[in-house]
Amino acid sequence: MKRLLATVLCITMPLAMSAAENGYKVAYDGGSIPDIKAGVGLKLYIDSNQIRLVRDETNVITIPASAVTEISYGQDVHRRVGAAIGIGVVTLGVGALMALTKSKKHFVGLTWANADQKGGFAMQCDKRDYRGVLTGLEGITGKKAVDSAALTVRN
């Protein structure tokens, strides 16, 4: 009986803890949110009628879903040249293979206008959460996300 109880608790406790964790970890990249600097880790919650950014269990901003005017997304791709040089010095040239690899950062931008309050911000999302964030934002706002690479201005 004790083994059965221990087995049930070992299975249900992690499930209960993961069910309570329904937000996305993001990094603020810049925008019109006061008192938050670029690079600060935040938690993004997409509720049924609002979007909330939380830092250390404190609401930073709450945006009504109906106030969102645009959702944009994009990627920033870099070659790992600096890391390849560092590894190449230590490993006598083997690090040159690392110069062929790329690193991607995924960004989501959000703009809103709620009566007299207007603003926007960009956030960096984890590669595993990127599509979930976009789908959640599109679902509650009714807006289609726009690829920021398609918005480049050519002179």
Can you walk through the features of this model?
There is one protein chain. With about 160 residues, this protein is α+β, with helices and mostly antiparallel strands. The protein has helices at about 1-20, 80-90, 130-140; strands at about 25-30, 40-45, 50-55, 60-65, 70-80, 100-115, 115-125, 145. It has an eight-stranded mixed sheet with strand order 4-3-2-1-7-6-5-8. Residues about 15-20 have low confidence and may be disordered.
Radius of gyration: 21 Å
Number-wise, the strands total 8
Helix/strand class: alpha+beta
Q: pLDDT below 50 for ≥5 consecutive residues: which ranges?
A: 15-20
The average pLDDT value, as a whole number, equals: 79
Q: Percentage of helical residues?
A: 25-40%
Q: Largest beta sheet: what is the strand line-up?
A: 4-3-2-1-7-6-5-8
Distance N to C terminus: 75 Å
State the helix count: 3
What is the general shape? Answer: globular
Order of helices and strands: HEEEEEHEEHE
Reported for the largest beta sheet, the result is: 8 strands, mixed
What percentage of amino acids are in beta strands?
35-45%
